[in-house]
């Protein structure tokens, strides 16, 4: 009887360990991707949410890729967390400014709304 309980307990524990190791957090999965992959995912989401044209898609992809690469370069520089946070914030503001030139007024407004929704969902 004890051996059966022990076997069942070990099976349950092994399933739990496999379930935990199989999942990557959002942060881990974003760090595991190359800048090009991250830019593609980001731009694909924009295309589906904002119905981008092919020309808009290409321009948005180049903007997203440039900012992602720039932010990645910040990780390798010696700076305080606050300095890095401010630099990333400035890069994101530059990204939005460049996207404003690519998107229509309606698309840009919708993008801002989507970003606010995501930001509030992350805080919860």
Characterise this structure:
- The radius of gyration is 21 Å and the shape is globular.
- The relative contact order is 0.08.
- Helix 4 (about 55-75) runs antiparallel to helix 5 (about 80-100).
- The chain has one domain (about 25-124).
- It has about 120 residues and is an all-alpha fold.
- It is built from six helices and no strands.
- The chain is about 85% helix and about 0% strand.
Low-confidence stretches: 17-24
| Number of DSSP helical runs | 6
**Form type:** globular
Strand content: under 5%
Number of strands: 0
Helix proportion range: over 70%
- By oligomeric state, this entry counts as single chain
SS class: mainly alpha
Radius of gyration: 21 Å
Strand count, sense and barrel status of the largest sheet are:
none
Terminal Cα span: 46 Å
The structural domain count equals 1
Mean pLDDT over the residues = 84
SSE pattern: HHHHHH
